[in-house]
Amino acid sequence: MDKEKIITDWFYQFSDEIYNFLLYRIGKTDVEDLVQEVFIRAMNGIENFHENSSPKTWLYSIAKNLATDEIRRRNRKKWKTFIPFKANHEPSSDESPDRLLQLNEEKKMLYEAILSLRPSYKDVLILRGIQSHTVKETAEILGWSENKVRSTYYRSKKALKNRLGGNIHE
Amino acid sequence: MSNDKLDKKMESMPHAHLSPKQKEKMLHTIINQADTEQKPSWKKAGGWLAPIGSTFAVILFAFILIFPNANDGNQASLEENGPEEISQTENVLSSIQLPTGTDLYLLFFITVMLIAFILTVIIRIKHKIPYDFLSVYRHVNKTHKRGELLLILIFITITLLSFFVFSYREFYVLLSIFCTILLGYRSYMEFKHEREEKEFMISLIWGSGWFTLFIGFLFFTLHITTFDEVIANYESVNPENTQVIEIENNAWNEDATSLLDEIITKEEFIIEDKETINDLFSALNTMDLRQRIMQHGDKDNYYSIYFKGSDIYAITVYEQYLSIDSQHYKVVGNNIIYEMLENGELD
């Protein structure tokens, strides 16, 4: 099959999921460019994609790596001085996604608590907790063993509970 | 709150959707950009103008430093010695083909730095590592920042101690060790924490460059030569050809009010006795020398030895150093010739 057609199919199937993942992972609303970049990279590297693995987990792993790079790039940007330079993904706004997702006070608190955790905890909470991926899928996306996914998910929930304290109504 | 409740809360988190219009637009961009991204991008070449420009500036600066340097050693005294000596000096200078002393250090430094720079440019283009023009270096994490700060403090302390306590003047050797360690540490931290940024390759190249400089400097500073080897280029400097030797004892005048009073001549004498000339040469031949950069403070009291009729201009004997044709050498062990001159054994 033509690679443009494959990417188009994948785009219509998974773009919303990838968009959501990036939205939660980066904590900013301007992630459309990154969604595009995920599919551009997939299209350029489609020859390396093994037919027997899942395109969804492959796209997610690209998105995860891109998100890591993007967060670093944005942190690095704080250090830039003197001359503004062009970057591939200049943030168009600093609006937080809680408005876009229309989060109520309680969910906003949960969302902010997730964002404050370490990257590996964030990854596993978004993939397992919010997007309900299976342990196997999460392990494939993150490149971890299934046991590591289970233990990290457990620890991240514990850390999340500590972060929330008694702030969430039962 | 129980784990189940937390799971439910997370599952109930809302999901955003891209509108069909947005999707159409994005898909169009993806199909178009995927084609263009496959070709290597040379558009960012403009960003390279800054480092290339700075390299040329460094080379130019080095040339300005090197060329006047080649003449400096003799310029000051030429006026006193008339056209004969000037032409002799010019002959000597034209016979020197390879850079020596400070020039060699500079040439070695520039060559290594230039190779390292070219390598970094190639690596950056090959691995598409962005170059941030005029950006401040951002450390990988706080540990990295503290580690580098600690290294800088250690370097400053060691340099000050070595200079003031142990009178160690070879600052560039310490600098090359420091830069090797700093860049090695930086590349390790970048490799460990920001591997996908590939910046560690750049730090590794610069680190290797400084390590090469360190090895080179070590070779230059530890390499022992002899008087015989140094004067091998000047065939006429030997006891047979030398008929007259003129010796001038000079000292720096600490109370000088003008440039002309800076050096005072304490004593002047001429040696014509063949036996004394032979003694002087045999004393010079027994000395082991190491090429060094001389500081102003090492020049308190010195003797200038002029070999009349030879193609070498002068040898200057300092307490710990020997200067031959404007290159400086530190004497390993006792400076026999200085002691002989101080004790009046050659008068």
TrEMBL record, chain A:
Domain RNA polymerase sigma factor 70 region 4 type: start-end pairs: 109-160
Gene Ontology biological process terms from the UniProt entry: DNA-templated transcription initiation; response to stress
Recorded GO MF terms: DNA binding; sigma factor activity
Top-rank taxon, per record: Bacteria
Domain RNA polymerase sigma-70 region span(s) in chain numbering: 16-76
CDD domains found in the cross-reference section: Sigma70_r4 (cd06171)
InterPro entries linked to this entry: RNA_pol_sigma-70-like, RNA_pol_sigma-70_dom, RNA_pol_sigma70_ECF_CS, RNA_pol_sigma70_r2, RNA_pol_sigma70_r4_t2, RNA_pol_sigma_r2, RNA_pol_sigma_r3/r4-like, WH-like_DNA-bd_sf
Signal peptide start-end: none
Keyword DNA-binding: yes
Entry-linked PANTHER family: RNA POLYMERASE ECF-TYPE SIGMA FACTO (PTHR43133), RNA POLYMERASE SIGMA FACTOR HI_1459-RELATED (PTHR43133:SF8)
Protein family: Belongs to the sigma-70 factor family. ECF subfamily.
Identification of the protein by name: RNA polymerase sigma factor
Lineage, highest ranks first: Bacteria, Bacillati, Bacillota, Bacilli, Bacillales
Automatic annotation (TrEMBL), chain B:
Keyword S-adenosyl-L-methionine tagged: no
Alphabetized UniProt keyword annotations: Membrane, Transmembrane, Transmembrane helix
Keyword GTP-binding attached: no
Species of the source: Ornithinibacillus halophilus
Protein name: DUF4181 domain-containing protein
Residue ranges with Basic and acidic residues bias: 1-14
Ranges for region Disordered: 1-22
Pfam families: DUF4181
Residue spans crossing the bilayer: 48-67, 104-125, 146-165, 171-188, 200-222
